[in-house]
């Protein structure tokens, strides 16, 4: 759902499923302040979906897996306000992936563990 600054309902989008504008347990949501795009971590579909401020589909990226731009239950998501990169907590891969706003891999870091630059199911 999209709510305005006064707390009033504006619109909603999405249904349960596997297609565009469909979600399977979307846990993370972020808004890119530079262009008002809504970025959703579609967790159980192992992908990221991007929408305009009206909820219209723009693009998606990611599949289930362990390689670059592949996810294993991405939960948390954030936007780097300097360059609009999407920062994804790739939870069951125990890492953070950084993807550009077009869905291209930028970098990743982290492994499973409790030491420096190690994660145990990051959200």
User: What percent of the residues sit in helical stretches (DSSP H or I)?
Assistant: under 10%
Terminal CA distance reads: 22 Å
What oligomerization state is this entry in?
single chain
Which geometry do the CA atoms define?
globular
Main pleated sheet: 4 strands, antiparallel
Strand order of the largest sheet: 5-6-7-8
Mean pLDDT: 95
Structural class: mainly beta
Note the total helix count.
0
Q: What gyration radius follows from the Cα positions, in whole Å?
A: 14 Å
Give a quick precis of the structure:
The chain has 123 residues and is mainly beta. The chain contains no helices and 16 strands.
What does this structure look like?
- This protein has 123 residues and is mostly beta strands.
- Helix content is 0%, strand content 50%.
- The protein is built from no helices and 16 strands.
- The strands form six sheets. A four-stranded antiparallel β-sheet has the order 5-6-7-8, with no helix packed on it. Strands 11-12-13-14 form a four-stranded antiparallel β-sheet, with no helix packed on it. It has a two-stranded antiparallel sheet with strand order 1-2.
- The two termini are 22 Å apart.
């Amino acid at each position: 759902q999209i709510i305005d600054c006064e707390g009033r309902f504006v619109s909603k989008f999405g249904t349960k499923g596997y297609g565009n504008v469909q979600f399977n347990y979307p846990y993370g949501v972020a808004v890119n302040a530079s262009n008002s795009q809504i970025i959703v971590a579609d967790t159980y579909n192992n992908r990221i979906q991007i929408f305009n401020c009206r909820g219209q589909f723009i693009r998606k990226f990611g599949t289930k897996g362990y390689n670059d731009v592949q996810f294993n239950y991405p939960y948390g998501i954030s936007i780097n306000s300097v360059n609009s990169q999407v920062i994804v907590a790739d939870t069951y891969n125990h890492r953070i992936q950084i993807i550009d706003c077009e869905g291209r891999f930028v970098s990743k870091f982290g492994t499973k563990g409790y030491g420096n630059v190690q994660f145990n199911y990051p959200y």
